[in-house]
Amino acid sequence: DQEIAFKLVTHILGKVKVDSKIYFQVRSIAKMQIHSMSAFLKDSTRKQDFVLETRVNAKLFVYQAAAKMEIESLVLSLERDGSKILVMEGLALLLDAADACLKSVWRKFKACEELFGSLLSGIAKIAVGRGLGQPLRLLLIRLKPLVLDLCEQPDTWVRNQGNMFDSVFRISCEIIESGWAKDRPSVDTFIKGLTSSIRERNDYE
């Protein structure tokens, strides 16, 4: 099954040094899965029933395993050659997938919340691990609309449905704390921009 295969490959990536050709094949497979994930989550035409929900949950677990494989490959990319362009492309893909989770009709499913949390944890791991340097600014630019979109959806932050809120809050804090010493101007811009946007939306309402 795909989920087991992705988990096994992720485990191997973290334990042994793999050939470059195999590494790029792994990345290619992971990227295709994440592209497929975003399209799947954005499909709002699905009717909810028990059988379909079971299939959706199974699919979400496969996507979570694929996302973890992509995250592990990005971490290795930073450690091997410091290819920040490649890493930023990967982060953009993960952020797109997280955004699709947040806006999905399946977002209240535990499997979708766990997928969302895995995506954001991976983003934070890459961002704070060795530091992205200047690209941190680009990551914060992408993170801002995700935070604002989350704030607009009440069912993501009420007491019994707050897993997505907790995930965004946690990784935002991790990235801010890590970036404070490395690129404080970018962090300042992120915080001020977020505050300004929230104020503008409150004034509009």
Automatic annotation (TrEMBL):
What keywords are assigned to this protein? Answer: Kinase, Transferase
Its domain of life?
Eukaryota
Q: Where is the signal peptide?
A: none
Molecular function terms in GO for this entry?
Answer: kinase activity
User: What taxonomic ancestry is recorded?
Assistant: Eukaryota, Viridiplantae, Streptophyta, Embryophyta, Tracheophyta
> Which organism does this record belong to?
Noccaea caerulescens
| Record flagged with keyword Translocase | no
Provide the protein name. Phosphatidylinositol 4-kinase alpha 1
**Annotated PI4-kinase N-terminal domain residues:** 6-205
**InterPro entries associated with the record:** PI4K_N
